[in-house]
Amino acid sequence: MPKRIAPQYVNAGTKPLGYPDYFAYTLIICKVLGVIAISYPQTPAKLKEWAYAGLTFNLIYASISHACVDRNIGFMLLPLAILGILAVSYLYNNKTRDQGKVTEQPVVPSVSLA
């Protein structure tokens, strides 16, 4: 493991909540994959939806974990603030995706009877 990724920094947020060490690494990998899926323009829409859902669940449960374990209001609100930013990203992603779709009206040939 590179020295830049020291275990004491990786699990600093999950260890006090009682989660095992491997859980922090799993969260990091999933978050990075989710951000890549959301950021990459050619990602299929279904995969982006799953990435948004995964990150949303992660942030909601992070807030719940902090509420149950350490009851620090700052730790509880930070994931919810980031969730707000994620929600804005999701809404704008849907708007830009919908604007990119060209809704073509069916062309009805005109019939001239003259």
> Rg to the nearest angstrom?
22 Å
The level of helicity is 55-70%
- Determine the oligomeric state from the structure: single chain
Distance between the termini: 82 Å
The total strand number stands at 0
Give the overall pLDDT as a whole number: 85
Task: Please give the count of helices.
Answer: 4
Principal-axes geometry comes out as elongated
Secondary structure category: mainly alpha
The percentage of residues in β strands lies in: under 5%
The helix-strand sequence is HHHH
Unreliable residue stretches: none
Q: How many strands, what sense, and barrel or not for the largest sheet? A: none
Provide an overview of this structure.
This protein is mostly helical. 67% of the residues lie in helices and 0% in strands. It is built from four helices and no strands. It has helices at residues 7-10, 21-39, 45-69, 73-100. Helix 2 (21-39) runs antiparallel to helix 3. The chain is elongated. The protein starts with 6 loop residues before the first helix and ends in a 14-residue tail after the last helix. The model has no long low-confidence stretch (mean pLDDT 85).
Question: Secondary-structure map with pairings?
Answer:
Blueprint: H1 7-10, H2 21-39, H3 45-69, H4 73-100
Helix pairs in contact: 2-3, 3-4
Please summarize what this structure is.
The chain is mainly α and 114 residues long. Helices cover 67% and strands 0% of the residues.
